[in-house]
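Task card 7
Instruction: Convert sequence to structure tokens.
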Amino acid sequence: MSGSYKPILYSLKVLLVVLLFCWSGTKTFSQRGIEFGGHAGGAYYMGDLNLANHFYQPHLNFGGFFRYHFNGRYNVRLNGLYTRLSADDADFNNGFQILRDRRFETSLIELAGMFEVNFKPYLIGDTRKESFTPYLQVGLALYLANSAQDIIGVAIPVGFGVKKNLTPRLVLGAEWSFRKTFSDYLDSVSGEDLSNYDSNYGIPVDEVLWHKQRGFRFQKDWYSIASVTLSYTFKIGGLGCPAYYQY
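Output:
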């Protein structure tokens, strides 16, 4: 399981390097603004019951966000969403999972605060040169999963996206992010012993095997969000000369 998360962990390190580079070495221009919007898309889980399959059992997610623009490069964002997560051992052709035969489903509500960095200078209201940018995001989230063994938890959101001004006020975007939780009980599968499988395995469960895990106790669960966003934006102080923002 640890191997399946190495690309994501590597991405975390790369993201931190990029954030530091953008913060220290990028020239910015002053442009404060606010943005309100909504998002909808798919969400899926990765953990003991789904080791590495992206977009496995996707569920609809939807929510809203508020974004504050410090300038053309840096934003902070408050984000809320609702979704469901699920997985089933029976979906995988793995002997141990077939024997374990566990499944789960839970609803999830999340509130997150994130810091975002634009790759390119982005100007609120512009529909020409500085109207499009990819961006990276990282933050802290609090979630409520009503059917999980750990109902309340904390996660680290890390993701990327793109956005484009459709008009001086409307912004269309798309983003994909991963949430690393600090719990191994989002799927309610973790440090259980093998005593219930004694007859199936055909071996006695002695002290050495007693603490062998039904799940991967030292690998925390993840969930991922992929969404399309649509928002309405305001530049603090107004958009300036209207002729500048026309095609």
